[in-house]
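quick one, 326 residues, struct below
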Amino acid sequence: MARIIAVTSGKGGVGKSNFVLNVGICLAMMDHRVCILDADLGLANIDVLLGIRPQRTLEDVILGETGIGDIIIRTDYRVDLIPGCSGTQDIADLSRGRIEALVKQVSSISASSDYLLVDTASGISTGVISFLMAAPEVIIGVTPEPTSLTDAYAMIKVLRKNEYQGRISMFSSMVKNSSSGHTLYKKISSASQRFLDTHVEYLGSIYQDEKLSRAVSDQVPAVVRYPTSDISRCYRIIASTLLGQGAAEVDHERFWTRLITMILKSPKPRTAKSPSPADVQKNGDLRGMIRDLLDEQRRTRILLERLVEKIERQESGIRPKTGPST
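---
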């Protein structure tokens, strides 16, 4: 059965889709059967990175318009792709029997692959967290940006609060070198271990490299377009690190049930209409709520930065400066 790994991030723009695609290809080059599931609902873009246009998606399978085998795309890179759905069609609630039948159908993917890499949405929305809770392994991408650092910590905190029992790993993205990447990992690892009692494993670093941008523009994976580049070496190292980890136990039925449920509950776009007085009042309340959330995020960021500084001082044996003695 496939080893299922969900790749996510606290905020967008960390390179998780490129991570999933390029690491998946590296695993395939090592003679492993790899399937990529684009589960970033509404922002599915693995197909764009590959320069292909799916005719059918997982949404069509759920609607009963086709079978799971008909939507799997056999790419030129020995990696299979299950296109994600945009969430634009109105999907009615399915009966329990229909969901069970769907789960049985899509579960066949687990039996025909060694690795199932899932590109999920970013953030800590209820739908994303509910889905991650069913994944046996979660990989979180983090960049040096302070917001990425705090959002990644917030995601780990939410998973821990919900008693997540799987493996949590991270990769440092858009860093200058391996030393910078490891420093970033230490900040997350130390805070998570000390304040959440949660161990986070380290997979490695993805360097800041303009060749990745060129590969994206060419719609050719970086490890194929620039196989000898530093960034391709980063992806290969991480793939090797994944191979060195033991596979976590997985409840395949639970995982696929959560995925289908997440798709069914994904928000659908609505036709614009003129605001009523009640809507204006509601929007005012919403703006106030957003301000409160932003304030809370700012306070969380400041607190985490202080905690990280305290940990780094204690680990290096440096004490904070004090005033002159009297």
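The longest strand covers residues 167-175.
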